[in-house]
Amino acid sequence: TEIDWKAYMEEVEGFANGTLDYTQLKGDTGPLVYPAGFVYIFLGLYYATGRGTDIRLAQYLFAGLYLLNLLLVFRIYCRTNKVPPYVFFFMCCASYRIHSIFVLRLFNDPVAMAILFLAVNLFLEEHWSWGCLLFSLAVSVKMNILLFAPGLLFLLLQRFGLLGCIPKLCICALLQVILGLPFLLVNPVGYLTRSFDLGRQFQFKWTVNWRFLPEEVFQNRAFHAMLLLAHLAGLGLFAVHRWHRSKESILALLKDPAERKHPSPPLTINNILWQAAHVRLLNASAQIIFVLFSSNFLGVCCSRSLHYQFYVWYFHTLPYLLWCTPTAKLAHMPKVLLLGVIELCWNTYPSTVCSSLSLHICHGLVLLQLWYGTAPLPALHPHTPSRRPAAISKKAQ
């Protein structure tokens, strides 16, 4: 359980000793391959735990991070009221692998995901600039957060148009420059190639999702290119047919929101106004979460390799992805069963042909129910007022 923690501490120890050449920061498991935000956060943990020697204290800190992560996730789910309460038991108590990733192995993946969920909470509160800042901070801890980026770009275009979303993107880019500046000044090429290496090869012995393939296929660049094309095609299909809810062309997202077509305003009756506003709030929250979570899930499905710590990339989003579609009473059990099988696949060590195939089948089933169960929502149109509310409104006047 100490292998990765010790490697992290060795990597940041070089920075603590004054090494600013990113190519010289290394640990027992190899060179440092994470962006600069990782270095600063784990440098704080390095000093807080007596230069990394007090592992028990580090575990307590990660236990606190685990509870904070759950709080942020629960707050997100409360905004939609789609997931039945009993599902949260599985999220809290039924995943040995997630507990191991947080408290036993002390990976940087849960740190990045906790910051990401904080950013999502800010998006739900319409604090888009602060949310983009936190999103970029999460990316600086681990690059898997970029799987949410296509969904975030879509949401920014939807709310601000092309010109309006440029300042938000500048926030994301500026933070990356500020965090990486000490390393960029010394060896910019070394920093960029090490911390944002999108072509890095993964070891076949650790793969969870492609065990059923021969190793030569797993390492083949043509296979990687095929996965990238599948990922881009999936994002395009979801963006056009599931994320985009308007009857206008998706190119209308490039316009200023004030220039787009909008439905007629709702009736001027207080209770109807409140109900319409409440429905719009729920729909807006649901759309933000659906776009971000499905964007990430598409990336996970098309990943070149999934290692055991990568489970935390999407574990806390699975309940929403499964229950965001209309669910009959008898349909709850198959969804719970899907969660159980996915958990079993991730708890099978080492992975097998059966476990990796089962994982892909489960992912495929989730994608199918997302595609067929989330037809674009109709625009919110006001209902024709009946005579009775009209009479009530006259009395109220």
UniProtKB/TrEMBL annotation:
GO terms for molecular function: dol-P-Man:Man(5)GlcNAc(2)-PP-Dol alpha-1,3-mannosyltransferase activity. Keywords: Endoplasmic reticulum, Glycosyltransferase, Membrane, Transferase, Transmembrane, Transmembrane helix. It is an enzyme of class 2 (transferase). GO terms for cellular component: endoplasmic reticulum membrane. It is a multi-pass membrane protein. Its EC number is 2.4.1.258. Its main location: endoplasmic reticulum. Pathway: Protein modification; protein glycosylation. It is found in: Endoplasmic reticulum membrane. InterPro entries: Glycosyltransferase_ALG3. The chain crosses the membrane at residues 32-48, 60-77, 106-124, 130-157, 169-186, 222-240. It comes from the Eukaryota. The keyword Glycosyltransferase applies. Pfam families: ALG3 (PF05208). It catalyses: an alpha-D-Man-(1->2)-alpha-D-Man-(1->2)-alpha-D-Man-(1->3)-[alpha-D-Man-(1->6)]-beta-D-Man-(1->4)-beta-D-GlcNAc-(1->4)-alpha-D-GlcNAc-diphospho-di-trans,poly-cis-dolichol + a di-trans,poly-cis-dolichyl beta-D-mannosyl phosphate = an alpha-D-Man-(1->2)-alpha-D-Man-(1->2)-alpha-D-Man-(1->3)-[alpha-D-Man-(1->3)-alpha-D-Man-(1->6)]-beta-D-Man-(1->4)-beta-D-GlcNAc-(1->4)-alpha-D-GlcNAc-diphospho-di-trans,poly-cis-dolichol + a di-trans,poly-cis-dolichyl phosphate + H(+). PANTHER family: DOL-P-MAN:MAN(5)GLCNAC(2)-PP-DOL ALPHA-1,3-MANNOSYLTRANSFERASE, NOT56 - RELATED. Dol-P-Man:Man(5)GlcNAc(2)-PP-Dol alpha-1,3-mannosyltransferase that operates in the biosynthetic pathway of dolichol-linked oligosaccharides, the glycan precursors employed in protein asparagine (N)-glycosylation. The assembly of dolichol-linked oligosaccharides begins on the cytosolic side of the endoplasmic reticulum membrane and finishes in its lumen. The sequential addition of sugars to dolichol pyrophosphate produces dolichol-linked oligosaccharides containing fourteen sugars, including two GlcNAcs, nine mannoses and three glucoses. This is Dol-P-Man:Man(5)GlcNAc(2)-PP-Dol alpha-1,3-mannosyltransferase. It comes from Anhinga rufa.
